[in-house]
Amino acid sequence: MIVLFAAVAAFLYTLDVVGKVWAVRHLTPGETVDLVGRYFGLHLTRNPGAAFSTGTAYTEVLSVLSITAICAVLWVSRRLGSRLWAVGLGALLAGVAGNLTDRLFREPGFLHGHVVDYLRFPHWPIFNIADICINVAAAIIIIQALRGIGVDGRRVARNEE
Fold this sequence. Notes:
- By secondary structure, the chain is mainly alpha-helical.
- Helix content is 53%, strand content 12%.
- It has one domain.
- The chain has four helices and three strands.
- The chain has a three-stranded antiparallel β-sheet.
- Keywords: Aspartyl protease, Cell membrane, Hydrolase, Membrane, Protease, Transmembrane, Transmembrane helix.
- This is Lipoprotein signal peptidase.
């Protein structure tokens, strides 16, 4: 399972980084490029905060939380025994690492960098592939928890009262 986890994380992280590099090189900030009429397009923006531009004054805190989350995911991944958990945790690692990379290495500086967002639906905040990874991971984790499947692949016993 660890190979699947690592492969998912590496592939999605690379996809996120390549997408952001492409967006920065080829999109003009503030201009929208419609791809599917007015329903989906590209619009380069830089986000100093978290999802939906929350916490814009706390980039350092978000960076530390991201590092903590990465450590936790790596720690938990040692017990992987479920393919779905491997995919979910791999996606979570990729998403958190992708946005952390921006916070560490993009302007205005280390731990203060702004995350590159460029995917746009009307009436919805602009986002990136890392954000998709985090949301898909959250859905997988919730599904596995509701199914009672632990990270190790075993069904978690429910206490009957």
